[in-house]
Amino acid sequence: MLETKYDHKKTETGKYDIWNKKGYFACDNKSSKPHYCIVIPPPNVTGRLHLGHAYDTAIQDIIIRYKRMQGFDTLWLPGMDHAAIATEAKVVKRLKDQGIDKYEYGREKFLDACWDWTREFGGTIREQWASLGLSVDYNKERFTLDDDLNKAVRKVFVDYYNKGLIYRGERIINWDPAAQTALSNEEVIYKDVEGAFYHLKYVIDGTDEYLDVATTRPETLFGDTAVAVNPEDDRYKKYIGKNVILPVVGKKIPIIADEHADPEFGTGCVKITPAHDPNDFEVGNRHNLERVVVMNKDATMNENAFKYCGMTREECREELLKDLEKDGLLLSVEKMTHSVGHSERTGVMVEPYLSKQWFVKMRPLADAVLDNQKNKDTKVNFVPPRYEKTMNHWMEITYDWCISRQLWWGHRIPAWYKGEEVYVGMEAPEGDGWVQDEDVLDTWFSSALWPFSTLGWPENSADMKAYFPNDVLVTGYDIIPFWVNRMTFQSLELTGKIPFKDVIIHGLIRDKLGRKFSKSLGNGIDPFDMVDKYGADSLRYYLTTDVALGTDLRFDEVKIASTWNFINKIWNASRFVLMNIEDLKEIKLDNLKNEDKWILSKYEKLVKSMTKHMDKYEFNLASAEFYDFTWNTFCDYYIEMAKYSLDDEATKSVLCFVLTGILKMLHPFMPFVTEEIYGMLPVKDAESIMISEYPKYNKKLVFEAEEVAVDDAVEFIKNYRFVKAENNISKDAKVMFDTNDDNELIVKMLKIKDNVVKEPLGIKAYKVFSNRVKATIYFEKIETEADKAQKKQQIEDLKNSIARREKLLSNENYVNKAPANIVEQDRQKLAEEKKKLEELTK
Length: 842
What we know:
It is built from 27 helices and 28 strands. By secondary structure, the chain is α+β, with helices and mostly antiparallel strands. The strands form nine sheets. Strands 7, 8, 9, 10, 11, 12 and 13 form a seven-stranded mixed beta sheet that branches. Strands 6-5-14-16 form a four-stranded antiparallel beta sheet. A three-stranded parallel beta sheet has the order 15-23-22.
């Protein structure tokens, strides 16, 4: 029997281990059942799971439990991501705190330290998955650096290289000076910062004339190799082909004509720094300009910056501007706010940097996705559908993807060099003198293979045959460019199939004010603090049902507490039912009363609606209907109705049948409490609720006429209670029904059997009715202290108003000069007030 008080800690502790040991989560790729697969978005092995991951995985667990109960062979594959930049930064810091330098330590020892970190935090993540109740199949757990996944990554690199889809080239990339690695564009976040346009004087060689060149980054002028003007700009046509003197440096650089210079923007003159700006890089290629790098990898100035060498870029700017002003070369400073790229991982300002890196040629891969999305039979379906536009837009504007990272932790690039020779292959080349590339691949390169590499690809394994393409992916809209798009083009190119059929996109979780969670705001929420306080069931239900998919959720702890109250309501209702059906041997739904048919009819309609919403991933709509039925219809009304016939086998059967269905429909959302209660049922169809059968709609148990009749009785009961409460009517008030129908249920529920009269009474009465039932309540009103105080105030107000009107109407001036209709209104109101005062003072 359930304990008298619901205790989420006691209910949830240990249950997960029991489920796992009994193999409830395990899939069977040889099963004749239909297969269903979700591959978990792998969390980074950098610490505790955050609220967003709890959101992701709660939705996935709802789907996988629902499908498991529907009879599918389900695989929910767990795994973790090595998170190259983030993990390496954490390990570097840990070693630094111990007085150890990464480079002095050496690559092999450093990688050992990274594996130690992974094992430590991988264990933490598994414990947190368990506390959330996630029904993942641990027999299939993967890590992005597993040997076979590493092999798959190398194969893709080699194959793409041989196809010409991967190349090595010198280009402007996003450089993180703190992590000292290249970044993809998706790893750069833009922040508005205060800056300025610095107008500099570039004197035209051999003349007193000059060009006004505006820049936001004067510290890069040491790398200028030209000044560009638009060929159609009449102001500067005469200068094209001449030289200017580079300020401070003193060397001559050409004035070139290029459409990159916009006559409508700034002064129309643009300094060209090919090694430190992506647009300037392209201009430099068109005009065969020298590329001069002026910074070191840590964003300090190098020897090309002359006396500023060794300064940080910020220090250099400050000193350089002083010197420019002293030399009369700083024309003006125009303050403004502009958007500047920062590293998503380290937060430092990203430096556009000329570097030799590895790239994926994106255009053919992106075009294949765009073509596929035009085919409704093979396309990736987004839920909500509007997010397909995000994918398509990214594919339309995409650029070559920089995939090399200057790190040690990750998939090492399978390329070897000997002099000018380059070898790319699965294994090292034969012979002496070959040196492997020091860099590793972007983490997203391996993550993009996750839906199929985890199933055994490139081998045509049993898991690949059974579970690929995956059925659904769940993620936030902010991850579409990073991951969803890359999985899609990689899958189409490598397998000829989409990686998943549906992509469920949820919103971001924000604080109550709509702000993102951040350390600087101090508004972060640890999901496991919420689990400890309210239980995993409460957190899961709140996160997955509060808003529609694709909509941002404003986190509110009060709503989690409200969910805990809902669980407590179900717990107490279940306890009552279990106490009264202990001797039930089997469920027999015959010899039913009207109220039994009513609840069964309501229940079956709920089953039908819930199934529709669950199939469409409409969890907020499903929960709203479920909540209303469970709290109001079942707990507040049917259980009260059932109390009058608890010896009846039909009533016991209905109580057990409906409670079982409630638990099953709730189970995907709240696995712990539903398993606890289900285990106490005297009649059940499975050892565990998670392998029981999800309710199926049964039209034979829909009784429309009886449902309408009992609905009407319930409506009457509500109206009766409202009238009684509003008018302070005592419980011994007499009731006369004006209709001759069977009102037994109403009489029982309202406990008025001894109050029913057949004839009208000559005392105050109220009419109460619903569509079918009409009745009269006869009563002597009980005057409360509040009533007395209100009455006293009314008498006082009336006396004051009467005195004012009498004084007004006794004034001949007012009576003779005021409009006749106004005077007459005052006389009528005076008469009404005197009559009302007389009634109140009786």
